[in-house]
Amino acid sequence: MTRKKNMAFSIGMILLIAAFLFPLYWTVNTSLKTEQEIFQNPPTFYPHIRNLQSYKAQVSNGDFNMFRSFGNSFVIALGAMLISVVLAVPASYGIARYRFRGKKFMLLTFLFTQMLPVAVLLTPMFVLFKNLRMYNTWMSTILADATIGIPFSVLILKNYFASIPKDIEEAAYLDGCNKYTAFFRVLIPVAKPGVAVCAIFSFLYAWGDLAYGMTFIIDQQKRPITAGIFNFMGQYGTKWSYLTAFAVVVIIPVAFLFIFMQKYIVSGMTSGAVKG
What we know:
By secondary structure, this protein is mainly alpha-helical. It is built from 13 helices and no strands. The two termini are 32 Å apart.
């Protein structure tokens, strides 16, 4: 690549990154403004009067407790992640290693579930959890969020197990392993990056969920952190500075998770794409 092409490519990438990051910048910018400055025309690209009251309101006493809601979201996301990984790992191994009737149809079913909008699933799940007396409990939201993470995890891990040479598994049998010990001691460690990716994305799906948490949990004390967004949306208006400050606070744990787990996400999304 010549110097001019390299410079043009770099400038194009910088502009593309700026376009993607601009909404995040505008959210932080709005959270630091007063309500008057938010609706000022023309808009300001930085707060002339720094307003930190919107962040102080997040931890103020009231019906909504941010720290308790953070704990609720963590329990729900962790539970959904564990269910997704525990069920998806053996399922994806079986789909990748064995031939059986209806295998392609099963994969299409997993893919089809990823295309269904959440609104379509709310009513049947509501009736199901209501009859099982699981309504207004964490378990209802955990199971609902797991229905999103399991198909994604199966589709990702299937390629991982399919890309692992059978010679590795056969060598484990020669060393005295049976199917179960070879699966847990050899195949899962080899597919560790893929399992990490599925665990991370299952956790993030459940962490960012709003529809299931609002529908299946009615007690404010049990609701996840995302449900707190409605505390700043009133009948006659919306407190945009408070709302955007809330969004920034909710994004922080996800941002740190991506920063510290970035190498697993990148390697996990690419290494398993060798064989489909």
